[in-house]
Amino acid sequence: MELTEIDHVAIAVRDLDAAIKFYAEAFGAEVAHRETVDSDGVEEALIKVADSYIQLTAATNEDSPIAKFLERKGEGLHHIGYRVDDCAQALADMVAAGATPIDAAPRPGSRGTTVAFIHPKGAFGTLIELVQE
Predict the structure, then answer these.
(1) How do the domains of the chain map onto residue ranges?
(2) Residue 83 pLDDT level (bands cut at 50, 70, 90)
(3) What's the pTM value of the predicted model, to 2 decimals?
(4) What is the average pLDDT score of the chain?
């Protein structure tokens, strides 16, 4: 089994600080990690839940995938991140199984991870991020 656990569930939000405040007030949650990923045009805040995260993610520019998602669908569930031991192998195996990759090869992700995305059209309607720590 290549999936080792759920790394994160990503939620697209318009106002990252407001979303962080909501999670703090509703759940007593604290941000475990916050980072801007300029290459993806996003700022994220990770809230630790057991060994996984809720990833609150907001656009930092109008051209980012999150900005486009918010424009089309509004706030809400954006993608799920699956933790894998070997991102390149998991990507190759998914493509061999018929998945449509967004990333041709793994690339750097937030918090020092290696990531690759799979298009929802090739994954039963769910945007998937493969995450190798």
Answers:
(1) 3-132
(2) very high
(3) 0.94
(4) 96
Q: What percent of the chain has pLDDT over 90?
A: 97
Catalytic residue among 43, 78, 129, 132: 129
Looking at domain 3-132, does it have CATH number 3.10.180.10? Answer: yes
Distance in angstroms (rounded) separating the CA atoms of residues 36 and 101: 24
**Catalytic status, residue 30:** no
Reduced to 3 states, what is the DSSP secondary structure of residue 29?
coil
Contact 54, 78 (CB under 8 A): no
- pLDDT at residue 1 greater than cutoff 80: no
- 8 tagged catalytic: yes
Strands laid side by side in the 31-37 sheet: 31-37, 42-49, 52-59, 3-12, 76-84, 128-132, 114-118, 107-108
Considering the candidates 8, 43, 78, 132, report the single residue annotated as catalytic: 8
